[in-house]
Each structure stands twice: as structure tokens, then as C-alpha cells.
Amino acid sequence: MPVLKSLAGEFHHHLAATPGISLVLFTGPACGACKRLKQVVHERHDMFADIHLFEVDAERDMALTREFGVFHLPAMFLFRDGDYHCELHSEAAAERLRAAIDAALARPAEEAP
Questions:
Q1: What is the pTM of this model?
Q2: CATH code of residue 56
Q3: How far is CA 7 from CA 25, 49, 55, 97, 100, in A?
Q4: Tens of pLDDT along 72-111?
């Protein structure tokens, strides 16, 4: 599960070239909830082995943060085969996050922000 820091202008290109499920986390260096979410994902990497993880530093990449309408951190967005699927809401517990991902993927994709 690769962790990719802010990709700025290459974000959409990398995401489009990534097959399968991708989870984009918008985080910030001073965000305690962001640190907890990343810790949960890394500690339970076995539950997320099929998911590509992208991380965007919301403070450093303001254009992408605005594009996705991020107002609160952490914010999560789900993609499948490079296409936007939905914004994801879940608490930072591995089982609940995995269940939220699976439930979201069972629904039709939404329009990208």
C-alpha cells in the first residue's frame, strides 16, 4: 500500500494510472485525527492490502484542497480504477473504515467534485 505525499500537478495523472481501489486522505501536519487515521491504516495494513493510499497535505496543496471542497480534516475520497467514486466518512477504526469502503463500493459512483 504506497503512501504518496502531495503530488500537486501530477495528482490526477497518478490517480488515473492507478488500477483498483484508491483512497485519498487529505491531512495536515498538526491534525491529531489525521495522525490517528494514518496509524490505524498502517497498523492494520492487512485489511487494506488491496487499496492504494494517497495522502494530500491540505496545507501545502491548497488548489487540490479547494477542488475537493475540503473544509475539515481528515477528509477521505474513494476512487476505483482512477475514477472518482465518493467522499468517504468513517471513524478511525480499521473494521469500520473497511466496512465503509466496502459499502461505498457497493453503491453506484457519484459525480466528482
A1: 0.91
A2: 3.40.30.10
A3: 12, 22, 9, 24, 26
A4: 999 999 999 999 999 999 999 999 999 999 999 999 999 9
